[in-house]
Design goal:
With 216 residues, the chain is an alpha/beta fold. The protein has one domain: Rossmann fold (3-Layer(aba) Sandwich), CATH 3.40.50. The protein has eleven helices and five strands; from the N terminus they run αβαβααααβαβαααβα. It has a five-stranded parallel beta sheet with strand order 2-3-1-4-5, sandwiched between helices. α2 crosses α11. The longest helix is centred in the C-terminal third of the chain and has 26 residues. It is globular.
Amino acid sequence: MILSDVEIKERLQHVYWLIGTSCAGKTTMAKAIAAKHNMVYYDWNDHYARFKAAAKPNDQPYLSKVFEGPDELFSQPIPEYVEYLFGQTEEAFVMVVEDLLGMDRDVPIITETIHIVDLVARVADPNRMAFLYVQEDLYREQNWERDDAERRAILEYMNRTSNATKHMNHVTEVGVVTGSLMLAAARRSGVRSFERTRDTTVAGMVWRLEQHFGLV
């Protein structure tokens, strides 16, 4: 069954979307709000392997793309790398929506994602979406310091390259470009944005998001 954007929006009124850049605090915020308001927490990264396994080259070329090794992956020129990242998440978005449509509609859901502001804006009301971004200097300083499963897996794979430091710096610059494009998309789509700075606290950001989502 193929649903229109309007029908998807109607069926996903119980879903809250946190979109944002790396190091902006999406996971921290989503988990905190989920715990506080008895929501189901859904992170598309937890399903990434399943999405790749289900991808078909003709339909999902980015998810289906196979690299010869870590050097080829991490050495992509910035424009191609950014295109690859956006392409993967856009292809996975269809699968994310299918997952969400199949979940219990009586329980609120909070989900986090990256790259696809424009697509979420088509299927969610403005008060169900928030875009989180981080100051560039803070991103550069902390991006590789985060201790989470996704970051550890990336670093482990990157350490198998011919020059891990070079590739870390390159991927950081990819993140800067990607973040700038995402912020522009959020502003273009009219999605409310929340910046993480050095003075931002978890409690303070949770409160701001709760107010925006109408949870308090």
